[in-house]
Structure formats: C-alpha cells, structure tokens
Design a protein that fits this description.
The chain is of the alpha/beta class and 550 residues long. It has 22 helices and 13 strands. Helix 4 links the parallel strand 5 and strand 6. Belongs to the peptidase S8 family.
C-alpha cells in the first residue's frame, strides 16, 4: 500500500512551508534524527530542562541508532519534519519552520509530569519573546482529571492560560479514547484542542472518517475537540532497529513506504500537525496574533457529515489564509480575570459570594484555590455547598481542595452523590488528598467504579492505583469484561493498572499487541477480552491461575 503525505492530504500550497516561523514542541526526549535536525533551510534547537540553566543548543543530525525518544521524534516530525530520509516526500506540515524542542526527560509519576511540564511552560514564559517562538504543542496525558475540573485546579492548565494571555498559541492533543472528555490540558479555555480524522488510502478528504478520539464539554462549556487533523494512517519516521522489528510492526510490512517510515496514529501527532499548519499561516500573515490565527482556522475548517460526531472541522490552510480575523484584542483572557480576582481583599470576596450573578460568584470562588482561606470565608463557603447552581457547588469544592480537612467530611461524601458530574469530579479530586478516609469507607470509591459518567469511572479507578486497598480487587475485576466488550479502552487500562498495583499481577495480551496496532481494532478487543477472562479465573481460583492475593 502507498499512502499520501500529510501535506498532500491537507492540500497545503507548495509555497507555504513555515519559513522563518519558530515553534516549540514539548516532549520527553528527542533523537538527533535528520528529519527534525538543523538543515540548510531551517534551524532546530534542543532545550534540556535537566540542565541547571536550560539554553537552546543547535541540534545537528547524527548517524543514530535513534532508538530512544521516538514519541518526540514523531511529534516534531509531524509539525516540521524535513522528510530527509524519504527524499523530502513524507514531511511535516511546516518543513522549513524553526524548531525549539523542549526536552523534559523521563517522567514516571504524575508529580514528575506536572513539575516537568510546568517547568517547560515557565521556560517558554521567560524566553518566547527572545527566540520569537509563536506557538507550542503539548501531547501530555491527563494528570488530575479528564476535563471536568475548572482549569484553575490544574497547575499545567494555569501555565497554559498564562502563556496564552501573553500571546503564544498553545496547541494540545485532546486524547485517543472515545469515552473521555479529554486527556491532559486540552480542556484549558484558551488552548486549541485537537482531535483527529483517519486518512483514507485514496487520500480523498470526502472519504475521511472520524478518529476515535476524546470528545465532550468542559466545566467552562468548551467543546473538545475544536479542530481536526490527521490522527491515523499518518506516515512519519520510524527508525526500525532490525528487520525483525519492522516485520513485527502492524502496518509496516504491508506498506510500500520508504525505509524507516511507517504509519502511526494518535492525537499526539494531529496536534503538532495543526501547529505546523499555523506556522504556514504565519508565514503569510506574520502580523496575526495567536487568537487571530485560531479564529481563522476555526472559521475556515472543512465540515463533513462523516466526522460530524466530533462537532469540529478539518484544518484547511489555504482557506484560513484568506480569512479576515477579528481585531487582536477583542476579548479578555481568563488568566487576567483570575489574577485580578486573586488580588482582591477578603471583603470583596465575601460580597461577591452573595452576588446574584453566577459568573461573579464562580470567579471569586475559584480565585481562592491554592491561596489563603480565612475563617470568615470558610464559613461562607460551607453555606454554599448546597447551592442550586452546579457551577457554584463545583467552585466551592475546588476552593476547599487545598485544605481538604476543613470541609465537613459528611458534606463531601454527600457531594460524591451529587446529580452533576462536574460536582462529583470536584468532590473526588478533593477527597484524593485525604487517602485515609477511603480506608474507612472504601465502598464510596467502589460505587464510583460504576459511575454513570465514564470520566468519573476512569478517575476513580486511576486513584485506586495509588490507594492500593484490597477491597477494591473484586469490584475492579467485575468491570473488566464489560469495559473490554464495549471498547472502553482507557477505563479498561486503568483497571488493569490498578489491579497490578494492588496485587502485583499482570496478564499478557493474547493475541499479542504489536506496534502500530489500533487500540480499537478487533485484535485489540480480543486481547482485552482475554485479559478480562484471566482476571476472572484468577478471582475465582480456577485451575491454572495460581494466584493468591488475600
């Protein structure tokens, strides 16, 4: 099989290459691969956050083996790969754009991920003007929730909002599973959240189908995704280390592609494709602000009934450059409103909490998160826990989340039963800071394993990995088959991770998963059903399980 390149599929005009536009990619590691390194037409800089004073250093290609940092290679290549090893055919969307590759290093825990990405965004805040960086892409997985919490509850989203306030376009991958609202900071109000479509073999846009990505509404009412780009059958560099590795790849052995290129999938690559498209637009309109570019691509995107389930359009670079965007400063950014409220005194906050305008009350409450909580404000907060507005109830809980021992435990447990998903998510988030209480009432967490909102299910099961309570084992196992049967990929994976954390046991998938294999393929579904069967056998002590975790 032969497959179109990203630029061919999106019909990007040949003269638009992102020339003289600088963009940034944040990822764990980047190899010195010729497709993303400095060449005669552009410069690439590597910024290592592990250094005491991170500074951009020119990246020069080496001879490999390029066997580490493959996700970083793919994200950078999707945005601005030169296509060097494919004779310039399989390039990224902006092959002449200057790259700043911000390397976080290996990250193993949620705490490490948050610290590293906050450090990356802080580096950009301090340096984007000096190096003329116009946009950045993040492909981070979720750390605190799946898009239902207010952005003020997440330090990464706070930094995204601050960077957007300063004029940098922040582009974020929305995530790869249909049951969740989003993965990572895509829910932040001012970032551009990216979903995907599947490139058909004939390369014709009208034949394109929607990618199985995240979708839904955030606490602020933002729909995810906002814009679409190729997320499956995307041809990118794949430096195989042996013929055996290439033969084991799910698609490479069947495709007629240049050596060391293969199809891959994920919104992790759709998002940098969008950033590269934006670089092409800035090449033509260097005076356009981040908000103007965002408005232009959203207003000119291609709508099609095939992907109407995503409520978003496919990027169209040629159409976007012809748009007339709004004035540069046509709206107030969320970050400036938040900072203004954080500077107000106690008296102003108390008055605002009695305001008849829901938006005023919510803004005042969320500005209390991660700050001081005087007794007089605490008393007023408690009185609002049963407010009729779900937004106000949610905001009150978030205001308390930095001081979870100051909210009445009974009230918080009651809020876990609230009719609104956003309120329940806020209550779960706040209770995650009081792990000792789950030992007393594990059934409250167990109930959330079957919550009507799949976002809540996922976050509760993920929290179970850290709590490691034995009473969770059977309820976790009992939901595996249903998740496998209904292709709830994220929740199934979270259940397996939690069970391994509690029991020390994991089962290999049969049939074996192969690199390049779609999570939603029949083979992947069969493998999940096999794992669910093995856990059920182990739980019932059937012959061959040889497991005892009691």
């Amino acid at each position: 099989m032969t497959w179109p390149s990203i630029r061919e599929f999106l019909r990007i005009p040949q003269e638009l290459t992102g020339k003289d536009v600088s963009i940034a990619i944040v990822d764990g590691r980047f190899p010195n691969h010729p497709d993303i390194a400095t060449n005669a037409r552009r410069k690439t800089y590597i910024v290592k956050l592990s250094e005491s004073i991170p500074q951009p250093n020119l990246m020069i290609a080496d001879d490999g083996p390029w066997n580490k940092g493959l996700h970083g290679l793919s994200t950078a290549a999707a945005a601005a790969g030169s296509g060097h090893l494919s004779k310039m055919h399989y390039t990224g969307t902006a092959p002449d754009a200057n790259l700043y590759l911000i390397e976080t290093g290996r990250l193993n825990t949620v705490h490490e991920i948050e610290n590293a990405y906050v450090a990356a965004l802080n580096w950009l805040l301090q340096n984007w003007r000096s190096y003329h960086i116009r946009g950045v892409v993040l492909t981070i997985a979720s750390t605190r929730d799946t898009g239902l919490l207010p952005w003020q509850a997440d330090p990464i989203r706070v930094k995204c909002e601050q960077l957007a306030q300063e004029g940098v376009l922040v582009v974020v991958a929305s995530g790869n599973t249909m049951e969740l609202t989003c993965s990572g900071p895509a829910s932040s109000p001012s970032v551009l959240s990216v979903g995907g479509v599947i490139i058909p073999e004939n390369g014709v846009i009208k034949d394109t189908e929607p990618y199985h990505g995240c979708r839904g509404k955030t606490f602020e009412g933002k729909w995810i995704p906002e814009i679409l780009a190729p997320a499956e059958n995307v041809v990118l560099p794949m430096p195989f280390q042996s013929s055996e590795e290439k033969n084991n790849h799910f698609t490479a052995s069947n495709d007629n592609l240049p050596e060391d290129y293969a199809r891959t999938e994920g919104t992790s690559f759709a998002a940098p494709i969008i950033l590269g498209c934006v670089a092409c637009i800035w090449q033509v309109h260097p005076d356009w602000s981040a908000n103007q570019v965002k408005s232009a691509i959203l207003g000119s995107s291609i709508q099609n009934g095939n992907w109407s389930s995503l409520n978003a359009g496919l990027i169209d670079v040629a159409a976007a450059i012809s748009m007339k965007p709004p004035n540069k400063d046509s709206h107030v950014q969320p970050y400036s409103i938040w900072k203004e409220w954080k500077s107000k005194d106690v008296s102003t906050h108390l008055n605002a909490m009695n305001d008849s305008n829901e938006g005023v009350v919510v803004a005042a409450l969320l500005s209390l998160h991660d700050g001081q909580l005087p007794d007089v404000i605490e008393a007023q907060l408690i009185s609002l826990l049963k407010h009729r507005s779900m937004k106000i109830r949610t905001a009150v809980i978030i205001a308390f989340s930095s001081y979870p021992d100051r909210i009445p435990y009974g009230d918080l447990l009651q809020l876990l039963h609230d009719e609104d998903s956003y309120v329940r998510m806020a209550a779960l988030f706040t209770l995650s800071h009081r792990s000792e209480l789950w030992n007393e009432k594990p059934y409250e967490m167990i109930r959330l394993f079957q919550d009507s909102d799949l976002n809540l299910q996922y976050c509760a099961v993920t929290l179970a990995s850290f709590l490691k309570i034995q009473n969770f084992i059977e309820p976790l196992i009992s939901g595996l088959y249903d998740d496998a049967k209904n292709n709830r990929v994220s929740i199934f994976g979270a259940r397996c991770n939690a069970l391994e954390a509690i029991t020390g046991v994991a089962f290999d998938p049969i049939p074996e998963w192969r690199e390049g294999q779609c999570f939603y393929s029949d083979l992947s579904r069969q493998a999940r059903l096999h794992i669910a069967q093995m856990w059920n056998q182990a739980n019932h002590g059937e012959k061959g399980s040889n497991i005892n975790w009691c």
